[in-house]
Structure formats: C-alpha cells, structure tokens
Write a structure and sequence with these properties.
The complex is a heterodimer. By secondary structure, chain A is α+β, with helices and mostly antiparallel strands. Chain A has helices spanning about 1-10, 20-30, 85-90, 130-135, 160-175, 200-205, 250-260, 280, 310-325; strands at about 35-40, 45-50, 55-60, 65-70, 75-80, 95, 100-105, 120-125, 145, 150-155, 155-160, 185-190, 210-220, 240, 270, 290-300, 305-310. Chain B has helices at about 15-30, 35-45, 135-140, 155-165, 190-200, 225-230, 275-290, 305-310, 335-365, and strands at about 55, 60-65, 75-80, 85-90, 95-100, 115, 120-125, 150, 170, 175-180, 185, 210-215, 235-245, 265, 295, 315-325, 335. Classes of the chains: A alpha+beta, B alpha+beta. At the A-B interface, strand 1, strand 4, strand 5 and helix 6 of A face loops of B.
C-alpha cells in the first residue's frame, strides 16, 4: 500500500493539471481492467465489465496548489491559490512546478499584521535574477504544488497530497485485486475536486451509475485541543453520514456498515460539519444517483504534511471489496 | 472606414467602424438579467439571415445554428445578453421607487446616477441627501442601498403607478461615447462586446457545427448558459466576454486584472473555471503566430458562463476570450477599441484553425471507447 501511495503522491497534479497522476494510475491498473479512458474534463475512468449493478467509485486525482498570476521585473512570482490553500500554511514552504522548478513562498515583510498575509501580499521566489530569467522557467498560468517526499513511520504516512491520492491508491489496489462480482465497477479518478467537485459531475453524467461512492479523506478529532469530531486516526474507514455537500443515501450508508460488520472490518461514522466531496456533485447528477462515501481519517489536511494510517487505507480496500461484491 | 469584414491591423487605428456602430446600438438596448428581450430582438434581426436556424429556449437563451461543412464536432460560442441593473421593489407614498440591485453593483456607484425604467424607458435619477444637509458622520459613512430611491418626478404613488410597476427593471441611462485615444465608453459593455463579436463570427461557415448562444441571466449566477449548454451538448466552447480591468495609478502590477490596450485577455483560472489547458495553449499559440497582442488575466476573480458550460453533460473543453473593460458593473465602462478588434481577430483566427485542433484533441481522447 505504501508503495502505491508513494508513487501517487509523488506525481504532480494540481486541479486542472492531473495528467501525470492519470498516467501513473493507468500504468498500474490498465492490465487489470476491461476498459480505460479519459473524458473531456480529464477524468480517468477504468471499467471492470459486468452484468449486474453499475457501481461508480470515485477518488479525486487533483491536489491543492498555487497558480502564477504575474511575474515581476525582478523575477518574483505573484500567485493565486488553487483550492483551499491557507496562506499562513503556505508561508515558508517549498513548492515545485511541473518542470521541476522549485520555489519558496514568502510575504511582503512590511506587513503590520500577519493576518493580512493574503496571497496578494505574498510571492514565490524561484531564485531567478530577472523577469527574463524567471520566464525561461515558468509562465503565467503555471501551477505549483507543495514539495516533499512521503515518509512511513509507525504504520502511518506523512506526505503532501494524501488528499486524495490515498483514495486513488485504494481504488488502484482494489482494481488490481479484481474483485469477483457480476457488478460492473467504474473506478473513476476525478479532476478538479478541490475547486468545486467539477470532474465528478461530468464523469457521473457520462456513466449514469446505479449507485456511487466517493473515496476521500476526512478530518479527525483526535489531536491536542482540537475541534470535536467523531473520527479517530487508525480506527478504521469512516462511513460518511453527512458533510456540507451531501447527505449520504441511508441505504448505502447502512450497506457499508453491514459490510464492515459482516467482515469484521473496523469502521467509524463520520459527520463532517464543513467540507465536501465528489459525492456532493455525483448524487444530484441527472435524475439523482444514490451516493455515499467512505473516508480515510486524515490529520493536517491541505498542509504540506498530511497524515494517514496505513491500516485505515487497507481496511478501506477490504470494505470496498465487500461492498462491490454485495448483491 | 474599411470594407466590411476586412480590416488592417487594429493597432494602427484602422478598424471597421460599423462594428462600433453595432456596439453602440446594442449597448443602448436594455436587458437586465431575466428581462433580456430588447437585446435578444435586436440580435435576432441582425443574425437571422446569416444562420441556418435559430430558436429561443424556455429560459430566453437565443441559440443560433450553422451547420458545419465536414467535421462531426460541435462548437459552442457563448456571450451573455444580460447586464447588471436594478429591480423596482416598491413605490413609496411620495412617488419615489424602492429598488434592489440585479447582479453585482456597488452601492457607491449608484448615487446620483440616471436610470431608465421598464419598456417605456421612464427616466429617473437615484437621489440622495445633499452634502449641505449631511452631518459629519453621514459624510464619512458609506451610503446604504436601503436609503436610496429612484425619483421619476411623480408627485405621489398613484401618479408613479401610471408609468412604472413593481417588478420592472431599470438600467443606467448613459449614451455611448467614443473618446480619447481609441477609447469607447458605454453602459453594459459586459457583455455586449461579446454579443457583437459573436454576431460577427456567425457570418462565416466552419467545418464543425457552430452553435452561437446568446445567454441570459449570467450576472445572477451563470444560469442561462447551464440550460443552453445542456441542450447543445457541445464538444468545445469559447466564451466571449467583457472582463474586469484595473490598471490605474496606485495598483500594484500584479493586482491589475488586465490592462487596457494590451489586447484581449485569456483566462487560465477564475472562480468558476479552470480553462482547458490544450485549448488555452492553442489560442495563445494562434495569437503569437498571427501577431495579435494578448494578455493573461492576472487575478483569480469573477466567473463566466464557461464555468457552467464546462461541467455540462459529460464535460466540455472551454476557454474564455475577453475584452478588458474598466469600471464594469458601474453605469459607464470603458474599453479600448483596439482590444475589441484584436479580440475579434483572435476569435476569427482561432476558429479558422480550430478544425485541426479538434481533430488532434479528440483523436487522443477515446471518449468512451477502450484505448487499452
């Protein structure tokens, strides 16, 4: 599992630029599925054919990032954010562009209050001495993501982009297992989730599944003096009850719980006050699609170092396998 | 004045004047969101003879169609007909009209402005307390929209009701003016510039099927485009817009969304959309090859119909070409005529070469078929 995660988090893939991630996944699973293709939004869709129910499993490929909006005459890059990037968390971080160009994020130091450290008062320094030099390295419109190698420690993983490459890894692992079932399974690796659940919407419309699950990370409530949340790292996949984008279809939620109980898989129930997943756009597609979600407990989401527990990831694969086999 | 449809490099200042005349007429038509009929009727008159068919859908979108000469791909061009404006919500005892803004209008931009209301174009003015009578606190605090009313010169409610009704819409009443160095000011440049560009582009026939969509209710949430794109179900769409421009003294370079005179602006990302990378690249390459000036919109702000079109159906490849307009969403906005003509040149050149791009792009995209 860690090897799969490692390959995926190392791929470059901010919203709208998910090609590299799609290629990594394609290489992993293309021999294990009956069909694999991309659509106009860049969603990667892999199908295991079957005569039963059409089940869509969605995990998003994109990660949060920064987008260059202007290059000044000294070669500093001004940027906007792609998805929910906290300026304070970005401060002092190393970021990397698709072509490998590395930069550091800093702020206009005459700011009186760090609360004013918004992206328009910040910049990326790519060690260029002039605009000309900078423009040989990057263009306006190019995106950058947080840099950093994934680390495994005590069965837990620390890395950028676990949101939602861990979901992608879980779907890839499941696809490689080729679960024995009559159901037709669509492994959908979606795009542009972080900017508004966009890719999942067109993918779901194209597939028109009978039911769907989104696989994404969720926040935990188990760190010092944090907001109260029911989910704990390492205590199993979280079956979503609701977040701000969706109320999970009760029958899908119950089926997931039953699958977990029947197979002795640890699970938790998730109620997330703020935040959404692809389930939010899938369930209101066309005439409506019964949709639920399984979440991987994760700490420090949208930081350069997010954390998940490998047991949770592996148990999610088991839970999904049981779910897609169920009649 | 040059011959219609043929013109030299707009940078020289030579451009087809009839297009500016068209823009003048179209900005004089009134079309607040949900009330776009006058604009739509004007456009229908202009384009009916240059398209194969057209229809108006249930939301009021005007959808014009031109059959392609070969390639089996659908391309949608979209420009929205609606403008920001006001909605009359009540009539006071004293004959003054209460109103709400339709679309994003800053309250400070309303005070003292002339408006016209409804089909009969009843003239009015948004009044406020004279400065002489304001106390120190009032002078310092911003105006509240709830304190503003429209004066149509009626002596009481009964008289006012003879010319206006609750539910009527009002637009800013300012005539277009050509002025200064290639400059043009008018109300509703957002997005009548796009409408004129689209009307012009409908003169040509292309290898692909072309759907010219003049959309409604963009300013209140990109609503018309959602229905239009669902019906058309295009492969690719280009949105023609008027976009923000803030290039005035005191703004840092990186906060200038666009600069007037630097050419049409392309959007990489705004709050509604991340443009298709391939289409964006194709358009910028086209601009470079043709020597057409262009710029990237520098701020991640605002949204366009592209946001709705992109996620329609099974997904659409989209990009936006926009004419920079200073002071949009106020009674008068300003554009550089050269940007307008360069936008037309760029759109024409893009459509001329789009055939090849479509072939290459959709060859690589299996679109539902296996590529294992």
């Amino acid at each position: 599992m860690f090897d799969t995660i490692k390959k995926l988090v190392n791929a470059f893939g901010p919203s709208g630029c998910e090609k590299q991630v799609a290629e990594v996944i394609t290489q992993m699973i293309k021999d294990k599925v009956d069909e694999i293709y991309t659509d106009a939004m860049g969603n990667l869709i892999a199908v295991k054919k079957g005569s039963g129910k059409k089940i869509m499993l969605a995990a998003h490929m994109d990660e949060i990032g920064l987008i260059v909006s202007y290059i000044d005459e000294k070669g500093f890059l001004r940027f906007g954010t792609v998805g929910g990037v906290s300026p304070l968390i970005a401060l002092g971080q190393r970021v990397v562009f698709e072509n490998g160009t590395t930069g550091v994020v800093w702020y206009e130091e005459n700011l009186e209050n760090m609360k004013d450290a918004k992206p328009d008062k910040m910049y990326i320094d790519i060690a260029a001495k002039s605009r000309d030099e900078a423009m040989k390295m990057v263009n306006v419109g190019d995106m950058a993501v947080f840099a950093g190698e994934p680390v495994e420690q005590n069965g837990r993983v620390i890395s950028k982009a676990l949101d939602d490459r861990v979901g992608c890894a879980i779907l890839a692992e499941l696809a490689m297992k080729r679960p024995e079932t009559d159901n037709e399974i669509y492994y959908v690796f979606t795009t542009q989730e972080e900017v508004g659940l966009r890719g999942a919407r067109t993918a779901a419309f194209g597939i028109m599944p009978d039911l769907a699950l989104a696989i994404d990370v969720t926040r935990t409530g188990d760190t010092p003096s944090c907001t109260h949340r029911p989910v704990v790292l390492g205590e199993g996949p979280a079956v979503k009850v609701k977040d701000s984008s969706v109320i999970a279809h009760p029958r899908i939620r119950d089926r997931l719980v039953d699958c977990a109980k029947e197979n002795g898989i640890p699970y938790q129930l998730e109620v997330l006050e703020r935040g959404g997943t692809d389930a939010g756009s899938i369930h209101i597609t066309a005439g409506g699609i019964p949709t639920g979600a399984v979440s991987i407990p994760s700490r420090f989401i949208h930081c350069p170092a997010e954390m998940i527990d490998l047991n949770d990831a592996e148990n999610t694969v088991r839970l999904l396998e049981a779910f897609v086999k169920a009649r | 004045m040059t011959e219609q449809g043929v013109y030299k490099d707009p940078t020289s200042g030579e451009y087809p004047e009839y297009l500016i005349d068209m823009l003048k007429e179209l900005t004089m038509a009134d079309g607040v969101s949900g009330d776009e009929k006058p604009v739509r009727d004007f456009i229908i008159d202009q384009i009916r003879d240059r398209v194969d068919s057209w229809h108006v859908d249930n939301m009021g979108n005007l959808i014009a169609f031109k059959k392609g000469t070969g390639l089996n791909r659908k391309v949608m061009l979209a420009a929205h007909m609606d403008e920001v404006g006001l909605l009359i919500t009540g009539i006071n005892e004293n004959g003054l009209l209460k109103f709400k803004a339709v679309g994003g209008i800053e309250t400070r931009a309303l005070v003292g402005k002339r408006v016209r209301i409804g089909k009969e174009r009843v003239p009015g003015v948004i009044g406020c307390k004279p400065i002489h009578l304001q106390d120190a606190a009032e002078r310092k605090s911003p105006v509240k929209k709830s304190g503003l009313t429209i004066d149509i010169g009626a002596k009481d409610r009964e008289q006012a009701e003879q010319s206006v009704a609750v539910g009527d819409t009002a637009v800013f009443a300012y005539d277009p003016v050509e002025f200064g160095e290639h400059k043009f000011m008018a109300k509703a440049l957002d997005d009548r510039v796009g409408c004129v560009l689209l009307m012009e582009l409908l003169k040509n026939r292309y290898p692909f099927d072309l759907y010219g969509c003049f959309t409604v209710q963009e300013e209140i949430g990109l609503k018309g485009a959602k229905a239009a794109s669902f019906a058309v179900s295009p492969d690719t769409a280009i949105v023609l817009e008027g976009t923000t421009c803030y290039d005035l003294t005191g703004t840092s370079e990186h906060m200038m969304s666009t600069r007037l005179g630097d050419g049409p602006a392309l959007t990489v990302m705004d709050r509604s959309v991340i443009s298709d990378r391939g289409l964006y690249k194709f358009i910028t390459q086209t601009a470079e090859e043709q020597g057409i000036p262009w710029q990237v919109k520098r701020t991640i702000s605002g949204g366009t119909d592209a946001g709705r079109i992109q996620v329609s159906g099974t997904g659409v490849r989209v990009c936006t070409i926009a004419v920079p307009c200073r002071y949009i969403h106020t009674p008068v906005s300003v554009m550089d005529k050269r940007d307008f003509f360069h936008a037309l040149k760029l759109a024409e050149a893009t459509l001329a070469g789009l055939n090849n791009w479509l072939r290459e792009t959709y060859q690589n995209q299996s679109g539902g078929e296996s590529n294992v």
